[in-house]
Amino acid sequence: MNPHPDPASFREAAARFPTGVTVVASIDRDGTPVGMTANTFTTVSTKPPTVLVSVMRGRTWQAIMDSKRYAVNVLHAEDLALCAHFSGRPRAEGSQSLVEREEFPVLLQAIAQFACDVVRSIDVADHTLFIGEVRWCRQRDGSPLAFYSSRFYNGLGAAIMPAETIAYPADGWAI
């Protein structure tokens, strides 16, 4: 008996967790910005600001391994073409792409950018988890590109409760 679910079943179950869509980018050995679409991105800590991305071995993975840094660009709801481009379906020449800002490759239209130095990497199966300490971040208003049940969505649904009404352990709640 296989101790794991079949890959299709696992993928279907994991697809029920909604995520944002990002482009994880780095600079390769030749100084060229490279990037890939990723929806495995999460904050880890605020003290110091730390985030995690999961990257499959490939060009972007190699650039992060070599440079020990990466940028996470959170895509705007209107950036489906950028998502496709960095997923391996290139766009037409001359369309907006990665530019270097303060030594990190970013997408100017991203609604958030996180510039990170790798503080730890952990190999898991065919991916590496890169934990990065955030050196700088920027944000602007806009709806995120969302991914749920293997489909893309324009932004988020209606808010049902303000985040500030949720109590956290630091507020005296016991876990």
Features:
single chain, 175 residues, mainly beta, seven-stranded antiparallel beta sheet, three-stranded antiparallel beta sheet, globular
Distance between the termini: 36 Å
Number of strands: 12
Provide the gyration radius in Å. 17 Å
Mean pLDDT score, rounded?
89
Please give the count of helices.
Answer: 3
Unreliable segments of 5+ consecutive residues: none
**What sequence of helices (H) and strands (E) makes up the elements?**
HEEEEEHEHEEEEEE
Which structural class matches the secondary elements?
mainly beta
Question: How do the strands and helices of this protein lay out in sequence?
Answer:
Layout: H1 7-14, E1 19-20, E2 22-27, E3 33-38, E4 41-46, E5 49-56, H2 59-67, E6 69-74, H3 80-85, E7 99-101, E8 104-106, E9 112-124, E10 127-139, E11 145-148, E12 151-154
Antiparallel strand pairs: 1-11, 2-3, 2-6, 4-5, 5-10, 6-9, 7-8, 9-10, 11-12
Explain what you see.
The mean pLDDT is 89. The longest helix is centred in the middle third of the chain and has 9 residues, at 59-67. The protein has helices at residues 7-14, 59-67, 80-85, and strands at 19-20, 22-27, 33-38, 41-46, 49-56, 69-74, 99-101, 104-106, 112-124, 127-139, 145-148, 151-154. The strands form three sheets. The protein has a seven-stranded antiparallel β-sheet. Strands 1-11-12 form a three-stranded antiparallel β-sheet, with no helix packed on it. The protein is mainly beta and 175 residues long.
